Amino acid sequence: MPLAPEFAAMLAAAAEAGGPALEDLSPAEGREMYRAMRPAAPEIKVGEVREDQLSGPHGTIPVRIYTPAGTGPFPVLMNFHGGGWVIGDLETADGVSRLLCNAVGCVVVSVDYRLAPESPYPAAVDDCVAATCWAADNAAALGSNGKLAVTGESAGGNLAAVVAQRAAADGGPELCFQLLSYPVVDHDLSRQSYADNGEGYLLATSTMRWFWDQYCPAEQRDEATASPLKAATLAGLPPALVLTAEFDPLRDEGKAYADALQAAGVPTRYRCMPGLIHDFLATSAVLECSKPGFEEAVEALRGAFA
């Protein structure tokens, strides 16, 4: 279907305003730009929000914990923010974390993992694995009912997929679900969706190339902890929902990962949202066209947590 009118207007306004491409900025400048694009949303009230720091393999890892109103215990959802492993933080993940906390009725643990290029691959992986193990080990303190799932957008979807693979390979923690929203699962930028959508739809091919160059040396990109589609086996992973967008360069690799999960016997639902672009969950509170994708995510998580 055609590009959703709301996104067509947004992209036209951005093109008219001009400005540098992300890959022409320093990582610090890119982080500031992304915070402006995805500001925190304290107006979305939840039962409680608190900051914590956990001990990771290479120092402390900040987390922000969102607890819904009401009486627990609640399921716990680990949320790994997007931003190409280079930009993004607790602030840019705040709005979606709050929305999921309220709509699903779960504790959301948002993880401020280390960023590249200062901390290249596999630093983000190590931090997200450590945070997930911490949540499992501290279930009582989090008010958990024992159900634990992972989610992430874009590069965060990459990390969620990798954490699910690592948990299965390492014998825990036990995860009941993985919600992967327009995930990066392969370093190959030659799929048809890159040709179709690699320019003019928010996320550009040149930007993805810059992200990979900042994050991971070329000789390590075939490792499953960098490109989870390259894993030797996906058998035994938790059930999944893979969300992609029609006008997203990452569309086809997300579909390929969903297909690979299904082929490995993992209960998997794949949904490509028509008319939408990358990062659409960030607009699900304000744009009608983005709400069906968010509702798909909520329904899947509620079912997994039931």
Properties at a glance:
single chain, 306 residues, alpha/beta, eight-stranded mixed sheet, 38% helix
Q: Could you describe the 3D structure shown?
A:
There is one protein chain. By secondary structure, the protein is α/β, with parallel strands linked by helices. It has helices spanning 5-17, 27-37, 94-105, 123-137, 139-142, 155-170, 192-197, 205-215, 251-263, 291-305, and strands spanning 48-56, 59-67, 74-80, 107-111, 144-153, 177-181, 240-247, 268-277. It has an eight-stranded mixed sheet with strand order 1-2-4-3-5-6-7-8, sandwiched between helices. The chain is globular and about 50 Å long. 50% of the residues are buried. The model has no long low-confidence stretch (mean pLDDT 98).
Topology readout:
Blueprint: H1 5-17, H2 27-37, E1 48-56, E2 59-67, E3 74-80, H3 94-105, E4 107-111, H4 123-137, H5 139-142, E5 144-153, H6 155-170, E6 177-181, H7 192-197, H8 205-215, E7 240-247, H9 251-263, E8 268-277, H10 291-305
Parallel strand pairs: 3-4, 3-5, 5-6, 6-7, 7-8
Antiparallel strand pairs: 1-2, 2-4
